[in-house]
């Protein structure tokens, strides 16, 4: 009997739904832990800043820790290139497994880093090295998870499937904030500043080991397996990416406004409420936690909406809202006097940002062919994040330290305006075919 006579029965609809559901859960849980480890640094910075940097100026100490946070972003293009290439050449699953291993090691380094009083600036060096490793890991994680979640979803539900990237990202941040809130109510400020801040990093290392086990059991996507026999040498190469340089430029431009807005209203928000509005740390943390929980719930609904009406309407709505709304929202937050007032304004900002976060993974993945999809998402996105997302908090504190805090609001609006022009000019990607099966279905 010839090999051509042997055919495998296609999976039943029930098996296919089960496979997609498991891929969604596995990809999302791993992403959650990755971003927990990434964001917990920002959440606990107000407690460990003076452990690594001496001095009497809290703003200067926070600027130093924010600077190391930003340096981590500088490694994201390196991680995006190396791990994006690995995802295109060896599979999304192998890249996802590698990223979480790197993140576990980085979290453990921070957990055991010596303070300035114990080893001088050596502790800050350990902190820096850990953030560089985290930067490499997260640079590959974003692209691998965005590609995996998008490819593992049915064509008419890719907006919904990819929205779970920011659901899991936000849940990772919520997990960190939840641990912070719990510790704020069980430990004194002195205990938190002395040793309590190490606990979430130690937990992050353990969580990452669990996810390593989980990701080893994920299935590879059909789109990657179908493309495995074609152009093997060019897959994931910079030469192949150069052939799609226009799409790479689009990724950078459409990321610009979204990443600045996202980091402004997430990682910087707590510090802004404490430092500018004069809110208690516990209250500011609770505002961030509640707003982010509601934000996570919104993501799938916006993703489903994009599957019905297209990606561009949501992106344009975000960019218009952020361009005209940032200054009044941030100004009002700076004088917020109650939990409910701050929560309402924060949630308003995050509803606007949802137009970007819920679908950006799908949009970027839909711009590229399989052989360069992970690298095409990873490298330009990581560069945009290194230049703008990772520096957002530092820029905000720099303006504040110079006595021109409100200039930062215009900076955020300007970045959103650049992305708005991009959204108006780019095509809608909702109907893009990511696999041969989808291409054949489109030709019928």
Folded structure, characterized:
This protein has 444 residues and is mainly alpha-helical. Helices cover 79% and strands 0% of the residues. It has 21 helices and no strands. Helix 1 runs antiparallel to helix 9, helix 2 (58-74) runs antiparallel to helix 19 (392-401) and helix 3 runs parallel beside helix 6 (122-151). The model is unreliable at 1-9 (pLDDT under 50).
List keywords for this structure.
mainly alpha, 79% helix, 444 residues, disordered N terminus, single chain
Order of helices and strands: HHHHHHHHHHHHHHHHHHHHH
Number of helices: 21
End-to-end separation: 32 Å
Low-confidence segments, given as residue ranges, are 1-9
Summarize the entry for a quick read:
By secondary structure, this protein is mainly α. Helix 7 (158-186) runs antiparallel to helix 17.
List the topology elements:
Elements: H1 13-52, H2 58-74, H3 76-90, H4 92-112, H5 116-119, H6 122-151, H7 158-186, H8 189-196, H9 198-215, H10 222-226, H11 238-242, H12 245-265, H13 269-275, H14 281-309, H15 312-334, H16 339-357, H17 360-366, H18 373-389, H19 392-401, H20 407-425, H21 436-443
């Amino acid at each position: 009997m010839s090999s051509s006579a042997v055919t495998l029965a296609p999976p039943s609809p029930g098996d296919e739904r089960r496979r997609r559901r498991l891929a969604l859960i596995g990809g999302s849980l791993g992403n959650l832990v990755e971003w927990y480890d990434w964001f917990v640094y920002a959440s606990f910075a107000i407690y460990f800043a003076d452990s690594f940097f001496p001095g009497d100026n809290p703003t200067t100490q926070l600027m130093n820790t924010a600077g190391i946070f930003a340096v981590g972003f500088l490694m994201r293009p390196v991680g995006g290139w190396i791990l994006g290439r690995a995802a295109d050449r060896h599979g999304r699953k192998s890249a996802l497994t590698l990223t979480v291993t790197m993140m576990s090691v980085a979290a453990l380094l921070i957990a055991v880093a010596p303070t300035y009083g114990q080893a001088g600036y050596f502790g800050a060096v350990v902190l820096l090295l850990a953030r560089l490793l985290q930067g490499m890991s997260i640079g590959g994680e974003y692209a691998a998870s965005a590609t995996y979640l998008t490819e593992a979803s049915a064509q008419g539900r890719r907006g919904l499937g990819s929205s779970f990237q920011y659901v899991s990202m936000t849940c990772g941040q919520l997990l960190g904030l939840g641990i912070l809130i719990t510790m704020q109510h069980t430990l004194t400020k002195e205990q938190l500043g002395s040793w309590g801040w190490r606990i979430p990093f130690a937990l992050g290392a353990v969580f990452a080991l669990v996810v390593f086990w989980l990701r080893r059991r994920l299935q590879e996507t059909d789109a990657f397996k179908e493309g495995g026999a074609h152009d093997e040498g060019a897959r994931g190469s910079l030469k192949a990416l150069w052939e799609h340089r226009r799409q790479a430029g689009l990724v950078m431009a459409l990321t610009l406004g979204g990443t600045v807005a996202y980091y402004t209203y997430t990682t910087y928000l707590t510090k802004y409420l404490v430092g500018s509005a004069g809110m208690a740390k516990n209250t500011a943390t609770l505002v961030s936690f509640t707003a982010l929980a509601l934000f996570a719930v919104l993501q799938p609904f916006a993703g489903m909406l994009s599957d019905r009406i297209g990606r561009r309407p949501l992106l344009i709505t975000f960019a218009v809202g952020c361009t005209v709304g940032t200054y009044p929202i941030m100004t009002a937050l700076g004088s917020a006097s109650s939990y409910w007032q701050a929560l309402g304004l924060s949630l308003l900002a995050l509803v606007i940002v949802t137009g970007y976060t819920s679908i950006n993974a799908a949009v970027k993945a839909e711009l590229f062919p399989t052989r360069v999809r992970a690298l095409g998402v990873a490298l330009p996105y990581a560069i945009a994040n290194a230049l703008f997302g990772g520096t957002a908090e530092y820029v905000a504190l720099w303006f504040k330290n110079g006595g021109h805090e409100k200039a930062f609001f215009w900076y955020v609006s300007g970045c959103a305006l650049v992305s708005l022009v991009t959204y108006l000019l780019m095509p809608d990607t909702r109907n893009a075919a990511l696999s041969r099966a989808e291409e054949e279905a489109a030709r019928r």
